[in-house]
Amino acid sequence: MSRIIRCGLTQTHHDVDGNEPLEKHKQSAIDKHLKLIEEAAAKDVKILCFQEIFNGPYFCSEQDPRWYDMAEPVPEGPTIKLMQEQAKKHKMVLVVPVYEEAVTGVYFNTAAVIDADGTYLGKYRKTHIPHVNTKDGYGFFEKFYFKPGVNNPKWPVFETAYAKIGIFICYDRHFPECARMLGLKGAEILFNPSATVAGTSEYLWKLEQPAQAVANGLFIGANNRIGLEAPWNMGEFYGQSYFVDPKGQMVAEGTRDEEGVVIGDLDLDLIKEIRNKWQFYRDRRPSEYTIDDVE
Question: Is 52 a catalytic residue?
């Protein structure tokens, strides 16, 4: 009997102007995502992943200390507590990316994983932090806000009620070591919650992760915001969230500009079929991949 798990990815537009009070940002985003959880539950989604820093705008477009106050503890903060209630209510695994305050002045780009009974399973902190100018003084200024992820254990894989899942966040997807480490540690589905704009990464969006799904014989779900976010308007978040299978084929794909939940039925038995055919993990030669004078 096939192990088919119905999974979902949110892709939304953040509607609140960046000049508004911080609590207005959080409440607007949370209200929207509560409706999306209900929509996903009605369609029998078992694992649902929100987009990067789901409960606010992509404030990294600018460098302003006011946004530090968006951070909250994980899992002790109110957002994760609320999502634990939602996960238990709907018997749904939730991947919840938020801005984490570890201690005052130390902040991470983090995704919490909550099991279908509401249990907090742990978190992944984004490993690779970009700092890139785009245009008009705006950009991806994440080093101003986030410390590079400190994860213990490294590359955590979460054994949920439905599947073994791994998380890597946005910019991490450009580093194939992320998917490789998670795959080697037993992940069946990888989730890559993102916030990325046209003109910067769109030409890579459907190239890198299908290749990584093939190289590692697993499923990947990648999601992105949609539209412009004021007042920065640094570029269009182009949506097109998707699930890709171990053959590199699209299972489900969202549009460029439509809010909602992208849903895919992932047949996890395909992992064994593909790995037994290609044997990439068997034929790896990690001892040959080191160069004495290169880190």
Answer: yes
Question: In a structure prediction context, what are the per-residue pLDDT tens digits for the chain, which is 295 residues long?
Answer: 679 999 999 999 999 999 999 999 999 999 999 999 999 999 999 999 999 999 999 999 999 999 999 999 999 999 999 999 999 999 999 999 999 999 999 999 999 999 999 999 999 999 999 998 877 778 999 999 999 999 999 999 999 999 999 999 999 999 999 999 999 999 999 999 999 999 889 999 999 999 999 999 999 999 999 999 999 999 999 999 999 999 999 999 999 999 999 999 999 999 999 999 999 999 999 999 888 766 6
Number of neighbouring beta carbons within 10 Å of residue 195: 25
How many Cα atoms sit within 13 Å of 107 on the Cβ side?
A: 20
Among candidate residues 7, 26, 49, 52, the one labeled active-site is 52
Verify whether residue 170 is a known catalytic residue.
Answer: yes
What kind of fold does domain 4-284 have according to CATH? Nitrilase/N-carbamoyl-D-aminoacid amidohydrolase (3.60.110)
CA dist., res. 196 & res. 146, Å (int): 17
Q: Which of 7, 49, 60, 170 is catalytic?
A: 170
- Answer yes or no: 126 catalytic: yes
Domain locations in the chain as residue ranges: 4-284
